[in-house]
Amino acid sequence: MKKLIVAVFAIATALWFLNTSMLTTPPSGTVKILAHRGVHQVFEPDGVENDTCTAKRIEPPRHAYLENTIASMQAAMDSGAEVVELDVHLTPDREFAVFHDWTLDCRTDGTGVTEETPMSKLKTLDIGYGYTADGGKTFPFRGHAQGQMPTLTEVFTALPHGRFLINFKSERRAEGATLAVLLRAHPEWRKSVFGVFGGSAPTQETLRLVPGLRGYDKQSTLACLGRYAAFGWTGIVPDACRDTLVVVPANYAPFLWGWPGRFAARMRDVGSEVILLGRHGGGDFTSGIDSAEDLTLVPKNFAGYVWTNRAETIAPLLGKRMAATNHQANRE
Q1: How many CB atoms are closer than 10 A to CB 11?
Q2: Which CATH class is domain 30-327?
Q3: How far is 32 from 317, CA to CA, in rounded Å?
Q4: Which residue in 8, 75, 86, 161 has the fewest CB atoms around it within 10 Å?
Q5: Domain GP-PDE, which positions (predicted)?
């Protein structure tokens, strides 16, 4: 029995030394904001399913920005966002429409599948048509957003200093190939693409055709985190976690070997960036760090990216927290 206790203690001690953040220097730099959909109208996420029209359940508007517009992206960057996430669909006239929904019926005055609609038609739609915060009694954005659905080309042109995480909404490999062609034709836009994710086929096709680009899909994320959970305690980083974007739900993060400092250092050493999401309770990885309470889930020395739906709120809160931390460090 005594030998067993000694063995267990020795193993526990070894695991602690291999994975404690106390004995490693976390990656340098400061936390960075990744603004999901730019600055946009938010909604209560509870009960939302794939076919839920979220424009019909927005909170009372606090600002005039609509998601995935050039104005909303600029507002996110003005708030302090380092990266803006946006959604794309490849239309029949070979343009990338920047719009979230698979169909047009929820948010716009149009109907049909987004990717099946020519960009020339999409440009005529009112993308604020369907928004309501009071069950359809009033529509505060109706008539104010005609023609504001941008193309990806327009985004790159209007915001040349921006960085974007591109979400493929389909499983069409042609989307990845088309994006690669676009970046080859305009090499100056390559620096604007922080990464790609979403549909596995277009994501993997883009990564194959654009050297050095990072990206992820559901399968690669599960492979990375699952294999790291299995043997990351050894300090070995699985190939699925190398040269990629590692998205981590905040409520799972404390269970990762070496979280936060040693985990982040390991990912940095294999060429990956860490994106901290909000709490994950099933469905897609799209919940964000959206409140002061959520900010308690972000380690104070975290130097990765924080995914948020409220960049205009979270960026100032993070700034105040960093200022307070720096002030305390100077006093010490």
Answers
A1: 10
A2: alpha beta
A3: 12
A4: 161
A5: 31-318
